[in-house]
Every structure is written in structure tokens, then in C-alpha cells.
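check these C-alpha cells.
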Amino acid sequence: MIMNKWFPTLLALVAFATVLQHPNSRVKASPLELSPAEAQLDRQVNELLARMTTEEKIGQLTVLRVDPATSEMIRKGEVGSIFGVTNPAEIARLQHIAVTESRLHIPILFGFDVIHGYRTIFPIPLAMAGSFDPKLEEGEAAIAAAEASAAGQRWTFAPMIDIARDPRWGRITEGAGEDPVLAAAMAAAQVRGFQGDNLADPRHLLACAKHFAAYGAAEGGRDYNTADMSMQRLRNVYLPPFHAAVTAGAQSVMTAFNALNGVPGVENSFLLQQVLRKEWGFRGLVASDYDAVNELITHGVATDSRQAVREALSAGTDMDMHDGLYLKELPALLAEGHIPPALLNKAVRRVLRVKIELGLFDHPYTAADASSAKTHWLTPAARAAAKAAEERSAVLLHNSGNLLPLDESLKTVAVIGPLADSHKEPLSSWHGDGDPKDTVTILDGLKQQLPNARFLVEKGVAVRGDSEQESEAGIARAVAAARQAQVAILTLGETADMSGEAASRSCLNLPGHQEQLLEAVVNTGTPVVLLLMNGHPLTISWAANRVPAILELWEGGTEVGNAAADLLFGKANPGGKLAVSIPRTVGQIPVYYDHLNTGRPGTLKTHNNSRYLDLPLGPLYRFGYGLSYTTFRFSQLTLSSPEIKRKGRMEVSVTISNTGHRVGDEVAQLYIRQRVASLSQPVRELKGFERITLPPGRSRPVRFTLSARQLGFWDNEGRFRIEPGTFDLWVGDSSAGGLHTSFLVK
């Protein structure tokens, strides 16, 4: 088959036309004449479609796990995609059946949850977002794609780009946090990394933007729960990352499990038809999440599986994952006229088109044998990239008295905590085909860093589940070790299964008896460094006030131990920032930086205002916050003009100076606020960021281009508005403070 190289370009042009008004614009693109390559692709799809039986068409819309009946179903053309297989030989065997024994030889699309690495596991996406480095994210996705494709995978169910503002939600670990601009940048980077410049290159994967849409807004942070919100919040906060993924070329989208304003994702025609296809020009395929079509019955919007299938396909859900309902119900629905053949054909065209774009007909076999596949995994370059990713993602939360970096002359070190020598937990709940035996643990990294030191290693307590008696004995041993050491390094946090899908938490404190362990070790008087390894943001108010040094490692992946050791001893300098606000307590949730001001903003000066009586104002740690082993100064904030027209742009410049004694990274963050508008506007909104590296004593200007489009917003009638008025502008190192100026929009 001839591979089409022009479709991504066409999609980009369509997306650009819609962006002319706003990155989430409703303006429809003008029809474009098909290029010869595009026309050829359509002919290929139509020729193949004309030869297909109804059963074979339905098969292309079916995504299944492997079971004993799968091989025969493939021979009959009843399976379009398979997910969850990791054995390269099994993938090759099943593909061989499809391309040699089925009637039309249509290849299978193999998919897998390649979330933050395939065999080389990188830090969780929430951590990677904190790098504020889209190029780093793109590189991670490219490595993951190369490793996964060597195993035979060609479709990843990533990026997950749901905005999450409730840290109780388990899947906050999989996304980019609370801000739509940062999340959009990371979403586009992941799509570019997974898909590359040429989707047909067998070293790449088809990206799948999920979960469309507002899945991260689940009430109470409870997974799968309802989301209910205004049109302006949906379009201003939750849709921009998806639009960025589509504009970057993502050719598949997965629907959300939950209901948005009462409408479950698989039957949400407003999202799938109006927004995704009509407004954004998306031409790829839409897949349901696992069993989501069948769950329309449980949602109470379908009486039975036949109605569920009719609703889902009619709304624009092309592929049905796992429950097999399309395969079961569509033949009768078509025969009885409840589903028009044109609707079926439209969905099948999308699937075939993507398979051709992906090069599956030319390169159906990307799986090597098991031994050959391993040569593509865990290469020195991949390990080095994973280590660098963790170093750039870790966030230094506290460093009283410059305890960090530690001195390499240390002779006795206590390494305490249930995660110090854990191979499994740093990989997270979504760890591709990663193998815990490949993990460099914290203890491994420390021993390599200090080969001549004496290490006193004590688990102390389990992350959760040990008895009071067990914890008391373990804490006593940990205290004894700490008293003998020059420094105590505590590794505390969560197990991998405490975050991710179906892993929401009602409390975000250190689980089990870890808090008691921490307090006991701190009370010895030995200097303490707390290493946090977790998927959720944790409420650590006690530690923030009592522990000298706190380094947030998140779930750092395969190379977490080597990265942590370099960070602790100053061979790497922390420069990561928080992609999500960390609350003081769960009672403060939701807490996010770009909130509305209210008529009575929170203040300590008066009584009747928006605050809690028993808490200080604001989160424990704010969005965009992170320390370094050096210091920086922002100066010389200038605008190219005091005003900007509603179709114009301006240049913003600031100078950053490294005023400390070490080379380090700083993230310049640009925020704006419209003082008066037709709708109340957030107190601040991130509009640009750039991470830079500076040697000590050096300065560098950072420049941003701010367009009028970035200053607009959606109203509750679904209209995009750019309104004249005065805007405040800040540039600084987090979502609070910074240099300030103002300008006019005319």
C-alpha cells in the first residue's frame, strides 16, 4: 500500500484555521482541496471497504483482549484491534493469522497502556509535567514508542491529559496537573514523541488522547464519578489540552468513563461530533474506554445493550473496547434499520484510514523475537534519559540551613523507610512492560555514590498494613540507627497501587505508621532528609514545619536511585516545579492557583471572607513552586508596548540572574489577569513558561510573545470573547509573587 505523508500536514492546516480565533476556537475551517496523496488514501479506503462484508466491517470496530477464541475470530475478520499482549512472539503469531489467513488480510492494531515508558520506565506524567520541559517529555515518549514498537505495539492509550484539581483522584498521577496551558504543552509534546514526523515509521506509535472529556473533574475525586460544570469552565480549562493534542496530530481519542453534565462520554455527541470533528477538524478514530459502551446501561441512559450500541455509534464512538457489544448487536441493528449502513461505513473508514496512515499494511510485523526485542529495551541511552528525566522532574520543597546537597565525605548514613530498597513501587501502577528487577533503588544509588560509607538500613514500618506491635519495634530500630548516623535519609510515600485507576484516596497523609516513624526519627536530633515517593500529592504539613530537607521524587521510574543520589549530593541541581498545588489538608480541597476572586476574597484582615477559620490562606505548596541549590533574581520586566490590539501581540522580556554559587535551572513563568470582564476572571492564569540553565553569576533575558488570542475566554453561551480592558501581568518563579506590570487591550 502507498503510505500517505500528507495527511498530518492537512490536519495541521485545518487545525491552524480553527486556531486563528483562539486555541479552542469554534470557527470552522474552510474546505480544502484534497492533495493527490490524500485522494489516493481515500481511494484505498473505499476500495477496501467495498470488498468487506458487514461482519468484517464490524470486526474493524472491535477491540478485544486475547482469549481462546481470538485466533478463530481473527481468521473470520471479527477483530480490528487487540490490547494487553506483551509477548512479542504472541503478537507476531496473531498478526500472521490476520495478514495471511483472514479473507482480506487486514492487519491487527495492537495497543497497550504505554503511559510513561514501556520497558524503561520514566517518572510519572505528573512529575514530568513538573519539569516544565516539553522537549524532555517528547524525548521520553519517543523512547517509549521505540521500545513498545519493538515488542509489536503500535497504539498507546496515552497521553492522558485530563486536568486534575482534586488530588484525591487516583489518576492525577497520569496527567499534567491542574493548569491547561502546561497540560496542553505536555500533551502536544507526548503526541509528537509517540508519533514522530512520520506516523508510518514502524518505530512509532499511534497516540490516543484520553479521556475525552472532563474525566479529571470527577466529584469528590472519586474515580468514574460524575462531572458537572459550566460551558465556560469546560472550554477554558478542560478542553485546551485535547485541542493541543489534536493540533499536534493525534489520530485517536478515547472517551471518558464518566458522565459530563449527565451525558456519558461514549454517547456525548456534543463532544465527539460538534467539538472534536466539526470545530477541530479531527479525522482520526474514537475508541471507547474499557467496557464503557456496556456501562451506558448502568449509567441509566440505555435500557439494554442494543440501545447502548446504537447510542454510542451514533454519537461518534467508532471502536468498542472489550465488551464485544458492537460485534454482538450491530448485525441485528443494521438488519432492522436501526443503524444506517452509512453510519457503519463512516466509522470503518476512520479505522482503515488510521491503519493505512500507521503503515500497518506495509509493515504489519514490528515485533521481533523475544531476544531481539530486548536489544531495543533499557539501552544505555534510554537509562540515561530516564535518569535525566527524574533529575529534572524532582522538586525541592524545603532545604533549611542548606542541608542539601550532602557532603560526600559522610561516613555513616542511616537509610530508613519502607521504600528505600523497593524495586516495584517507583514504577507506579501504570508501568508498561517494566520489570521491577531493572529498577535502581534509592539504596542502590546511595551505595554507588558513597562506596566507602557505612549504611545503617532499617525499614521502620510498612507503607501500610503492619500492626501496632510491628511498627513500634520497627520504629525503635530506626531510631537507634538514626542516632548512630551523621544524617538520616527517610524514604516515605505510597505503594504503586495507591494511585492510578480506581485508586482514589479520602486522606492524603503518609499512610500507615509512616508519620510516626518520621516524627520519631526527627526527634533524635540527627539531620533528616525526607525523600517522598508517591503518586498523589501528599498533605505533609507536619514535615513542612519540622523536617530540614524535603525532596519530592514522585514515582521516579527505573533510574530513580541513581537520580536521587546525584540530587542528594549535588551532582544534579533540583529545578523541577509543582504541576499541582499541594493542600494543607484534604478539607481544603479543591485548592488550585487560578481560582476566581469571589466578592469577598480570602484575607486575615476581616472576618466575613472566603477562608477556613482553622487554616492559613492558600495551599501548603503552590503551583509552579520549587527550590534550587542556587538562587535567582528576576529583573528588568519590559513590554514592547503598553497596549495590544484585539488582533495583535506584544513581546514580554525579563532578565534572570543566577545569584548563587552553583549552576542551576529556573523556570520563568508568565501570568496574567483581566481586571474587569463580562465574566469574573481567575486571579492569575499561566500564559507562558521557559526553563533555562544558568551558571553562577550569569544573567540571561527570557522573552515571551503574548498574543491577544491568549487573553480571550469562552462565555457560558459558547462564544469566544476578547474584551478590552486593563490586564495585570506577572513574571516570576511560581504562581505567587513575581515582577508586576500592566497593559491595555483595545
In short: DSSP finds 22 helices and 26 strands in the chain. Residues 134-150 form the longest helix (17 residues).
